[in-house]
Each structure stands twice: as C-alpha cells, then as structure tokens.
Amino acid sequence: METRTKNITKTDIAVIGAGPVGLFMVFEAGFLGYKCAVIDSLPHIGGQLSALYPEKPIYDIPGYPSVLAGDIVEKLAEQGEPFDPQYILGNPVSELTEQKDGSFIVGTATDEIHCKVVIIAAGMGVFTPRRPPLENLADYENTSVFYSVQKKAQFEGKSIVIAGGGDSAVDWAVELANSAKHIHVIHRRNSFRAAEETVRQMRELEAACKVTVHAPAQLSELHGKDGQLEQVVIADLEGNKTELEADNLLCFFGMSPALGPINDWNIDLAGKKIAVEASTMQTTRPGILAIGDITDYPGKLDLILTGFAEGAIAAKTAQGIIDPDKKFKLVYTTSKGVPAA
Ligand SMILES: Cc1cc2nc3c(=O)[nH]c(=O)nc-3n(C[C@H](O)[C@H](O)[C@H](O)COP(=O)(O)OP(=O)(O)OC[C@H]3O[C@@H](n4cnc5c(N)ncnc54)[C@H](O)[C@@H]3O)c2cc1C
C-alpha cells in the first residue's frame, strides 16, 4: 500500500484561516517574537475579502477613509512579511491532535504543522457557494458562471444575469451596471434583503433601463456551448419562461459555511461559532484560541477591526502559553520598530 508522506512544518503558532484576521495575527504574534504558519482551504489568502468582494471599497478600516478589500489583503500580507510567515493554502485543516506535552499537530491532506498554540481564525468556516439546482451548471462554472466577482473588468460590455436577493446580488448589480451591456437581476421574492440605499440605487438603474429586475422569478435553464453561456432561461411562479441573453451568470445565493472538522475538536460552540473568553480569546480547550468572525462572546461584532483587536489579545495569551515565565509587557511598535522585510 502506498503511504504518502506529508510536508512537516514546525512553528510556534498555527493560524487556521488566512482571512484578514488570520493575516494580521502574523503581525501581532511576530511582534512578540513568535512565528506563524497560516493555513487556508482556499487557494489564496484574504478570506471573505478575496473570495467575495475583492473590488469593493471598505469604509471602516481605521485610517483608510476608503480602501478596496483586495488592497487591504495585499497590505496585510506586506505587514506580516517581516515575520516570515509560512502560508499553506488550498487544503482545509481536517485534523488536530494534541501531543503529550500539550503541543499540537494540525493536519491537512498534504501537511502537518507542529505548533505550540493553535489560533482558529476560520471566519464562517470552510465555505462553499450555494449552487442553483440546474442540470448542466457544471459545464459553465468558472467560465461563464461565477459565485464571486474577482475582476470587475471581466464583465465590461457583457450581458449579465445576477441571481439572488441579498447584499451581494444588489451590490454587484449596482456596481457593474455602468460598465456592463445590461444586467438582469433574478430574485424569487419581490422584496430584497439588502441595504435600503443600495436597493434604491438598483431601482434607479432599473428606471434608467440599465438593470431589469425579474421578481418573483427563478433560474430554469442554461444554454450555450463549450462553456460559454448564451442564454439563461428564467421562470415565474406560474412556470412561464423567459429567455434572457447572457454572457455570464453570477449566483449570489450565499455561502454554505460549515465548521466541518472544528465540530469534532472538543471545543464548546455557541451555535455555529466558537465560544471564547473575550479577555483572552481562549476557547474552552487550553492552547486553542479563536479570533475573528468565528468567535462568539457577549457584544461580539463581526467586523474586521474587531478581529484585528482580538488578534492583539490572542498574541498576549499565546505568549502566556508558550513562555509562561515571561511577563507580558505592552510595547508600542513606534518604540520597538519591526524587522525589515
Ligand atoms: C459583501 C461583504 C461586505 C463586507 N463589508 C465589510 C465592511 O465594510 N467592514 C467590515 O469590517 N466587515 C465587512 N464584512 C465582514 C468581513 O468580511 C468579515 O468580518 C471578515 O472577513 C472576517 O475575517 P476573518 O479573518 O475572521 O474570516 P474570513 O474572512 O471569513 O476568513 C476565514 C478563512 O478561514 C478559512 N477556513 C475556514 N475553515 C478552515 C479550515 N478548516 N481549514 C482551513 N481554512 C479554513 C476560510 O477559507 C477563510 O479563508 C463584509 C462581508 C461581506 C460578505
């Protein structure tokens, strides 16, 4: 029987999740002198920011009145670079084993990360987009059918069908309307679960004939050839069908995130999140901390800036675990500086 050997990495801290919060953890841990390996199931860093809205501006990152999500990811990676993190991407963490000495082995299909502390920054968990139940969907996925917008320019001059009724669907309808040939928005209800202001903007674009809203309606068939979509057929509640010219279909039915293996790690959960003690970011299992969207505690806000602060607290807790005899001293970056990248 063939036995595959795994790549072995030895590090101080294994950070599960390379979203913005996991990326900033590299800095906070590094500043205290600890190395991180950051593992993500996605093939790229950035978590939700890269997977869901890389080209959308964020307005509540302190010090940046407006910054594109993709640019924040780049800057976070740059900020962590002096601390020489190891990124292990493209496979979910599936195993976590505690050693006799209290250290851990975190495992993916290809890698084993030996570490003293585990920090779970897994956001919504391993997320995969919800797919519409269309017969030949797979023929068009990643060529004409997408579940996120990675490059806006790709959709310039295109006829686009956007399916969904939440923030992502409405945001992208508004965002792409001026550069696309035409946008059809398909939603199975008449009302949208999106920010009022953005829905208003979408309705304005509808009045200007840049967007057509079909609601209530749902996707029925896809037609095209060699992965290139040509038509999307939609159906109303009575089953009446309408053919729409379409180069692309963007489906925003949300993600179905799954805690997956985290469920089996003997950590107390709060619903689909991990219960932590907010003053330490410690989970109910010693040596395993959690930060970012995955956490729950009284007053928790699922915001990037909250996650950054949690990273600073987690670094302090990690120091207490790795170097229990060392007294934590808050040092300003302005006093100590950081190593050159
Ligand atoms: C459309 C949209 C707009 C938003 N706008 C804002 C905004 O303006 N301001 C703001 O503050 N927040 C905003 N948010 C929320 C923000 O994106 C989240 O708060 C942030 O991404 C949380 O970061 P995180 O690092 O905790 O988790 P995530 O970004 O979710 O990253 C978690 C990572 O962990 C990985 N992962 C999970 N489980 C595993 C596993 N078992 N093994 C390996 N990897 C794993 C996932 O693949 C993912 O990459 C927005 C969210 C959306 C969807």
Notes on the protein architecture:
By secondary structure, the chain is an alpha/beta fold. It has two domains: about 10-125 and about 255-335, 3-Layer(bba) Sandwich (FAD/NAD(P)-binding domain), CATH 3.50.50; about 130-255, 3-Layer(bba) Sandwich (FAD/NAD(P)-binding domain). It is about 20% helix and about 30% strand. The protein has seven helices and 24 strands. The chain has a five-stranded parallel β-sheet with strand order 6-3-2-10-23, with helices on one face. Helix 1 packs parallel to helix 6 (about 305-320). The protein is elongated and about 70 Å long.
State the name of the first-level CATH class of the largest domain. Answer: Alpha Beta
What is the molecular shape? elongated
Percent of residues in helical segments? 10-25%
Unreliable runs = none
Based on secondary structure, the structural category is alpha/beta
Total discrete domains = 2
- Looking at the structure, the CATH topology of the largest domain is FAD/NAD(P)-binding domain
Number of helices: 7
What is the residue-mean pLDDT, rounded to a whole number?
95
Rg from alpha-carbon coordinates? 22 Å
Assigned CATH superfamily of the largest domain: FAD/NAD(P)-binding domain
> What compounds are bound to the protein?
flavin-adenine dinucleotide
End-to-end gap: 44 Å
Strand order of the largest sheet: 6-3-2-10-23
What is the strand content?
A: 25-35%
> Would you report the number of β strands?
24
